[in-house]
Amino acid sequence: MPNPLFYAKILLFGEYGIIENSQGLTLPYSFYKGTLKFSDLTSDFEKKSNQALIKYAQYLEGLDLPKGFEIDIPRLNKDISKGLFFDSNIPQGYGVGSSGALVAAIFERYAVKKHNPENISKEELKNLKSVFGMLENFFHGKSSGIDPLICYMNLPILIENKENVDRVAIPEEVYGKGAIFLIDSEMTGETGPMVQIFFEKLKNDGFRKTLKEEFIRYNNACIDAFLRKDMNPFFRNLKKLSLWAYEHFRPMIPEKIFNIWKKGLETNAYYLKLCGSGGGGYILGFAKDYEKAEKMLEGFHKEVIYRF
């Protein structure tokens, strides 16, 4: 049986907002992927990955996972001693779910009870999300469990609120003028410190108020319009969302992205938003006319993830 591949994920909408109960929309991204493999650990990459798995297995041993979601730790340890490693091209610190793919791969192979992603109920999805949060806490300090869930399900997921998630159909891609794309900030970001900054900001009543009354409203409106493929309200709310982030998420926006973020808002040629927690990694771009945006963003490495 071939090794299952676990793809990266893109959080299109919901960064930070989902902590405060906003909706979120996330999709698998097959350009990057990872799988568990065995080797004689001759390369540095394989050696490092194997050593990281030793530490991770020790962490898992200390977890009290709910019934039906336990991990076969002895089998995992045995395989690690035989040269198990995670072969992945998913960049770390880029907001595309490198640890989520690893957690999903470990769960898929070593969960005592097998779960079939194709016929998981909404209630089971909720339980899986919670278990994946426990499994991913090792990497982020506090995880929502969303990233591993996306990687495991390999389907677009609508985050309805803190508790509930469901599968969702996104509009079929058509090769039109518009595009959603990634911009490489050429620096890695660390989730932990960024999330810490956000929690510090939340202590300010004014920030909490504008987050709930503006950011979450624009964010949810974008998701609703995108799923209905209603592009006029989509871009109208997207501009408000991008401007809000430019004003309130400054520490999360990589320095070399500031100017192009502002330029997008001034020209309306494209709009930018964070992809995950920010601080580095990828930034998300949205343009009605991608060719025009591409010319304006010359010098930056871009990857198109969806056309419309």
From TrEMBL:
GO terms for molecular function: ATP binding; kinase activity. The keyword Transferase applies. Pfam families: GHMP_kinases_C (PF08544), GHMP_kinases_N (PF00288). Residues 224-301 form the GHMP kinase C-terminal domain. It comes from Riemerella columbipharyngis. Residues 84-153 form the GHMP kinase N-terminal domain. The keyword Transmembrane does not apply. Keywords: ATP-binding, Kinase, Nucleotide-binding, Transferase. This is Mevalonate kinase.
